[in-house]
Write a structure and sequence with these properties.
alpha/beta, Rossmann fold, 4 helices, about 20% helix
Length: about 180
Amino acid sequence: MATFISNSPAETEAFGRRFAKGVSPGSMLALKGELGSGKTQFVKGLVAGLGSEAPVTSPTFTIIHEYAGGRLPVYHFDFFRLQDRQRSRREPSDVDLDPQGLASREAGYQSVVRLGLDDYFFGAGLSVIEWADKFPELIPEQAQWIFFEMKSEKERMIATPDDAIRESRIALKPHQMK
């Protein structure tokens, strides 16, 4: 694992910009990290690094945001609140958002399929999934996992397999590696 230490949202966004250099059509990034750890800031950098000027916000309540205008379209998912209504005895085809962020893996899988989100995976764009760890069985083996950790109020650690750094041609300064 290679790690990057960010001391500000701007540094996290800059890391995303550099990371964008190595993504290609059909790439999928699976993001894992607690609230406030920098996942959405990273996506802001990815979108900008791909040449889009679209404003990036977390798709927590909409499940997906699409960003165009760059080298690749970006499909930005957020699985934080995803849950199936089937667990609450409603119509099996209905989808619900759980206000507490709790979801069963089975119900989450059915929600993703019913919403057609899996149609975006490995298409012509870049799929980025925040809270991918909630439904790891939905994440294809070839997806690139990126881990975000809050070290302090300002400091964040972003970890990714070494090959992701090489593939993205990111030149990290020695003080950024841990």
